[in-house]
Amino acid sequence: DEFGQEMSEGATIWQEYTRAADAHDVQLLRQWNQSLDTMLIVATLFSAVVTAFVVVTFQDLQPTAQDLTNNLLLEVVHALKNPQMNISQSLEPPNFIPSSINIWVNGLWFTFLACSLGDAAIAMLIKQWLNAYSAGLPSSHQLRSRMRQHRFNALIEWKTAQIIGFLPFALSVCVMVFLAGLSILLFSLNNAIANFVHSFGNVF
């Protein structure tokens, strides 16, 4: 380039910058998108598995129709044995209090679902950022370089790399929360099965 024209619109530096930046961005975006895609698949699979458990266990947090029927039948029997009993008051359903085990198990598993869905939502938001990062760049090398650098600085300012790196760790914490609930449930059902599962899990 001629002296004094090193930073002009048609200067070689902009072409070189664009070439190097495009190569860097293609590799970086591919790596980030692959990481996010993997995280989304794992989060979806885990959420589906835990949802299947929650569908069964959350029913223990509220009285079933069978429980209400049994309680009413008992009250009717008591009323028949004691004619002086106030039937209208005796037929009132008793207060239902779920067991502490059911509360802990469902609380942990609902926490997992909230955490997993939160991770997935953040991952989808970041993927939208990455798609917008390389879209709509002008054809002029100078303008393209300036706009690209502005967007790259924004990614650094918003700590995008740190967030992407944190998402798998957050999902791992969610899995530990689920396993804690599973352990509580298994020990409440059968100690032998719970110990076997723990021993099998410790191998891995």
Structure description:
α1 (12-57) runs antiparallel to α4, α1 packs parallel to α6 and α6 (160-189) runs antiparallel to α7. The protein starts with 11 loop residues before the first helix and ends with a helix. The protein is built from 7 helices and no strands. The protein is mostly helical and 204 residues long. The protein is elongated. The longest helix has 46 residues, at 12-57.
Number of helices: 7
Rg from alpha-carbon coordinates = 30 Å
Overall pLDDT: 82
Beta-strand content estimate: under 5%
Q: Structural class per helix/strand content?
A: mainly alpha
Roughly how much helix do the residues carry, as a percent range? over 70%
Total number of beta strands: 0
End-to-end separation in angstroms reads: 62 Å
In N-to-C order, the SSE pattern is: HHHHHHH
Features:
disordered N terminus, mainly alpha, 204 residues
Q: How are the SSEs ordered, and which strands pair?
A:
Layout lengths: L11 H46 L7 H17 L5 H4 L9 H34 L7 H17 L2 H30 L1 H13 L1
Helix pairs in contact: 1-4, 1-5, 1-6, 4-6, 6-7
